[in-house]
Amino acid sequence: MFDLTSIHPLVKDGTTVITSPVRLVNGSIFSRQTDGDFASNKYEVTIAFDKEKSPELYQAIMGALRQAEETGKTNLWGGTTPSNLHCCLRAKAEYDDKGNAIESNTYYLTARSDFEPKHFDASRKKLTSENEFFPGCYVRIQVEFYPWHRTNEEKSGISASLYVVQKLPSSSAYVDMDDFFIPEVEDFQPRTPSPEDRLGDDGAELPL
């Protein structure tokens, strides 16, 4: 038997993260997101994780965000972090019985791409149907965090480019080893993003 909790996140080049297993909230993996007022016209996924249950993943993402922030301060933001910085990672809004905001352990990460991400299952078989991915299923994703600035709108932020989505068994936390294969890091190599993929994402929060 194989425990999915034994799969740890990986960090490459400081700003690229391959996650441990996370829950898919929603996604447009086979086609661009074009529906609704918040449509990005990009391929995208939103995943959720608990920072207390996945501390390694939380630290990996925060470390990558800090490095992207430092790059932004040096190359885009004049040496300081903007006070109204948009970010692709956000905490779930939670409140106590009196309506006061309280700290949440649940975090959402939205990643987008101008090109179709690689998508395969635990055995590295390419998936061909959007129905393979549904809210609540377990996935791993590879993302790269990068800073941006829109001079004409005076907006700045840190976004995540989406490269890979791997569907994991979700019926149980345990699966037979013969039915599960952990891809090597090389299976998560990103394609070079187009210039358009590095622009135009204002980090606006999506309705969940």
Euclidean distance between termini CA atoms: 34 Å
Shape type: globular
Largest sheet: 10 strands, mixed
- SSE pattern, N- to C-terminal: EEEEEHEEEEEEEEE
Tell me the Rg in angstroms: 17 Å
Task: Catalogue the unreliable spans.
Answer: 171-183, 190-208
Q: Work out the number of β strands.
A: 14
Level of helix content? 10-25%
> Beta-sheet strand percentage?
25-35%
Average predicted confidence as pLDDT: 80
Continuous helix count: 1
The class by helix and strand makeup works out as mainly beta
Description:
The structure is a single chain. The chain is mainly beta. Helices cover 10% and strands 34% of the residues. The protein is built from 1 helix and 14 strands. The strands form 3 sheets. Strands 2, 3, 4, 5, 6, 7, 10, 11, 12 and 13 form a 10-stranded mixed beta sheet that branches. The longest helix has 21 residues, at 55-75. It is globular. The protein starts with a strand and ends in a 33-residue tail after the last strand. The relative contact order is 0.24. Mean pLDDT is 80; it is low at 171-183 and 190-208.
Set down the secondary structure blueprint.
Blueprint: E1 2-3, E2 10-12, E3 16-18, E4 22-28, E5 43-50, H1 55-75, E6 86-87, E7 89-91, E8 94-95, E9 101-102, E10 106-113, E11 118-120, E12 138-150, E13 155-167, E14 174-175
Parallel strand pairs: 6-13, 11-13
Antiparallel strand pairs: 1-14, 2-3, 3-12, 4-5, 4-12, 5-10, 7-10, 8-9, 12-13
Descriptors:
10-stranded mixed beta sheet; two-stranded antiparallel ribbon; disordered C terminus
